[in-house]
Each structure stands twice: as structure tokens, then as C-alpha cells.
């Protein structure tokens, strides 16, 4: 259902801070042409925490419209208040999305039981498959494998995006959740190794600016051609690492603007544009990856 190279899509803004839907359409077309396997609209890389609910839903709906059935669109529906995530799910029912991706609630640090109840409530209000998203480095809470296993028993919860970078969890999740449960990496640096060890794919930041390479790499991996995939991966490694030289999506939006994929590289406060000191680092990574 969900596999290969899926982009954690940036949300482009105009100079006045409003969503740039012309650039959004350009991005969708870019990923269709490049062979990306899916789009996550308004996930955390899409600056979901700075969009209003109305903007959030509109960006997802416009992404579905621009995709026009050519590529699956997964909606980011995460929030640190369960009622807000439930609201997103309700508003996006019957919208044409392929699934929902919900990050663990950030800042309030729920218990494992709280996480279970949070995701159970979301699943009960949605009509599409659900993807759990664990990124403790940004949320200060870790969705443990035992809790993932409990949630995997809910029919509509079909996948996990694991951005811990801990490859030892793959085997644990497989054992606890079964072979049919979908495991997606959320860490570009270890994404290929994740698939080598039994994962199904990656939800990627690098994919925003190197979509064709990422699609080819994970296609080769799916065919068992890991040596060929590794050649691409090593070339892209400077991007995997240096697109996080400052808080994501600051570097990748700067890079996307440099490549002409979006009209402007602006962000919403409290995020600010890439610093002068970091720009040569990202530019060098783009050059080493042969995309600039």
C-alpha cells in the first residue's frame, strides 16, 4: 500500500507569508514526473504547526486536486491535542487522500497509554488507512514497539514511520506487528539500510530536491539490487546529512528555491531563513550530490 520513496513535501509560501499554490502545483508535477511513490502533504516538514486548520485542510485538498490521481497523497493530521487530530480526520474524510500520517503529540509528553488512546481516537474518526509517526528527537516522546503492536491490532492502523534512526527496531516491529504491517523510515541517512533490513520504504526530506534519484534508489532496492542502490545513496549522503544543518525544513526550502522548484524559500515564524553561514554547506552538499 505504502512503499518506496515518499516525499515529506514542503509547503511553499509567497513573500507575504500566504501559501503559494502555483509553486505547490509545480512541486506535485515534479514528483509525478520523477516517479516518487507518494506525497505527504502538510506533515511536519510541511510546517503543519504554523498553518491554521483551514489552511491545513486546503493545502491537502489542493495537493489531491493537483495530483489528479497520478500519485497517492497522504495527509499529515498530527497535532498535540487529540481533538485537533480528530478534526483533521473528519474534515478530510471522502477527500481522495490515500491515508493519514499522524505524529506523536509533541511537548505534552503523554504516557504510552495516552499515545494508544490518542491514535485509537483518530482511527475511529477516519475512513482511510492510518500511519503512526514516531520522531522522539522533535516531540520528546517515544512511541515504543509494544505500543505500536497494540495499535497495529486496530484494522485501519497499517503502518509506522520510524524516524528514530534505530535500525534494531525493525526486527522488533516485524516480530510484534507481523509481516503485513508497513514499516517506513523517517531518517534519510539510514533509509536504505532500513529497507535492506526489511523496511518497506522511506518518507523523505531529501526527496524534495532529489526525487528522481530517490525513486530510482528505492526501486533498485525493491528489486534486490542493493549495490546499485548504495551508489546512489552514497552520492546523496551529503544531502541526507546537511539538509538538517539547521532545523528542517529550513535548509531544504532554501535548496528548493535555488533549484527553481519553488518561487520563494520563505518560512513562517518561529522558523527563519537559512543563515549565511549554513548556505555554503547546503550548496556544497547539492554539488556533491550532482543536483546543482
From TrEMBL:
Pathway: Amino-acid biosynthesis; L-lysine biosynthesis via DAP pathway; (S)-tetrahydrodipicolinate from L-aspartate: step 3/4. It is found in: Cytoplasm. The record marks 44, 107 as: Part of a proton relay during catalysis. Keywords: Amino-acid biosynthesis, Cytoplasm, Diaminopimelate biosynthesis, Lyase, Lysine biosynthesis, Schiff base. Homotetramer; dimer of dimers. PANTHER family: 4-HYDROXY-2-OXOGLUTARATE ALDOLASE, MITOCHONDRIAL (PTHR12128:SF66), DIHYDRODIPICOLINATE SYNTHASE (PTHR12128). This is 4-hydroxy-tetrahydrodipicolinate synthase. It comes from Vibrio galatheae.
Amino acid at each position: 500500500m505504502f512503499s518506496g520513496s515518499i516525499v515529506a513535501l514542503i509547503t511553499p509560501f509567497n513573500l507575504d507569508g500566504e501559501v503559494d499554490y502555483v509553486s505547490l502545483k509545480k512541486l506535485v508535477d515534479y514528483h509525478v514526473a520523477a516517479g516518487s511513490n507518494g506525497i505527504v502533504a502538510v506533515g511536519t516538514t510541511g510546517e503543519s504547526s504554523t498553518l491554521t486548520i483551514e489552511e491545513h485542510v486546503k493545502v491537502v485538498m489542493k495537493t489531491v486536486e493537483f495530483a489528479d490521481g497520478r500519485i497517492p497523497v497522504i495527509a499529515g493530521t498530527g497535532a498535540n491535542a487529540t481533538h485537533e487530530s480528530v478534526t483533521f480526520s473528519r474534515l478530510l474524510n471522502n477527500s481522495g487522500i490515500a491515508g493519514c500520517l499522524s505524529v506523536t503529540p509533541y511537548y505534552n509528553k503523554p504516557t504510552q497509554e495516552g499515545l494508544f488512546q490518542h491514535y485509537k481516537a483518530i482511527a475511529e474518526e477516519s475512513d482511510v488507512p492510518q500511519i503512526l509517526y514516531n520522531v522522539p528527537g522533535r516531540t520528546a516522546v517515544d512511541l515504543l514497539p509494544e505500543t505500536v503492536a497494540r495499535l497495529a491490532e486496530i484494522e485501519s492502523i497499517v503502518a509506522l514511520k520510524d524516524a528514530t534512526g534505530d535500525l534494531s527496531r525493525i526486527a522488533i516491529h516485524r516480530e510484534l506487528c507481523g509481516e503485513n504491517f508497513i514499516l517506513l523510515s523517517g531518517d534519510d541517512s539510514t533509509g536504505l539500510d532500513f529497507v535492506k533490513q526489511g523496511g518497506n520504504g522511506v518518507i523523505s526530506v531529501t526527496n524534495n530536491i532529489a526525487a528522481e534519484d530517490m525513486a530510482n534508489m528505492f526501486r533498485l532496492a525493491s528489486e534486490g539490487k542493493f549495490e546499485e542502490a548504495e551508489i546512489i545513496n552514497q552520492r546523496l549522503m551529503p544531502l541526507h546529512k546537511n539538509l538538517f544543518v539547521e532545523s528542517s525544513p529550513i535548509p531544504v526550502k532554501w535548496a528548493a528555491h535555488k533549484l527553481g522548484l519553488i518561487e520563494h524559500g520563505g518560512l513562517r515564524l518561529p522558523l527563519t531563513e537559512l543563515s549565511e553561514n549554513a548556505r555554503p554547506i547546503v550548496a556544497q552538499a547539492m554539488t556533491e550530490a550532482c543536483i546543482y
